[in-house]
Amino acid sequence: MTKLIYQENLEEIHTFESYFGKTILSNKCLIMPYVNLGISDHELNPSSKMKYIDYCYVIALDFLFLKKNSDILLNNLNQEYDSTKSIYLGGNDLIGDQGIFDIEFQSKKSFTQVVEGYQLSSEQWLPVQTPNFKANMNPERIESFVQNKHLPNNIDEIINTLTT
């Protein structure tokens, strides 16, 4: 079976040129679907040269610190806060109206989860057309992915645990 969950080196993901879908965010968890997530110096790509994952999720549970844009939503660290221990997320919102520009967090558990059959490329994945480049991904699959239509079972379980 192919490994899908990577708990190490989450700080080595790069979201600047990434696209994210419908984000599930509460004081207990973050589930963010990403397209074109950059990664280097990581188990998925040990090289320092950036590669891009077509479809994956970034998940965080049990926050110690959570900041959305400029608003601190949770701070259980108080005086022990150290920004160098934070994970920073951003990217381009494919939904368009989520009001998410930056997320900073520290949590007890966080991981990157690729989807079954994911692809890693040195070329960028483009879910939408840009002024200079055409989209190079299936629009129906993009729509389904960014709307969380077919979440992996373990992510569904996380959501169900939070809503029960």
Structural account:
- This protein is 12% helix and 37% strand.
- It has 2 helices and 11 strands; from the N terminus they run E-E-E-E-E-E-E-E-E-E-E-H-H.
- Strands 1, 2, 3, 4, 5, 6, 7, 8, 9, 10 and 11 form an 11-stranded mixed sheet that branches.
- Strand 6 and strand 7 form a beta hairpin.
- The chain has one domain (5-157).
- It has 164 residues and is mostly beta strands.
- It is globular, with a radius of gyration of 15 Å.
Name the features:
about 160 residues, mainly beta, 11-stranded mixed β-sheet, 2 helices, 11 strands, about 35% strand, globular
Unreliable residue stretches:
none
The tally of domains stands at 1
How would you describe the shape?
A: globular
Provide the succession of SSEs: EEEEEEEEEEEHH
Strand proportion: 35-45%
- Share of helix among residues? 10-25%
Helices and strands: which structural class? mainly beta
> Radius of gyration over alpha carbons?
15 Å
Q: What is the distance, rounded to the nearest whole angstrom, between the alpha carbons of the first and last residues?
A: 31 Å
Biggest sheet, in brief? Answer: 11 strands, mixed
Mean pLDDT, all residues: 93
Helix count from the secondary structure assignment: 2
Task: Work out the number of β strands.
Answer: 11
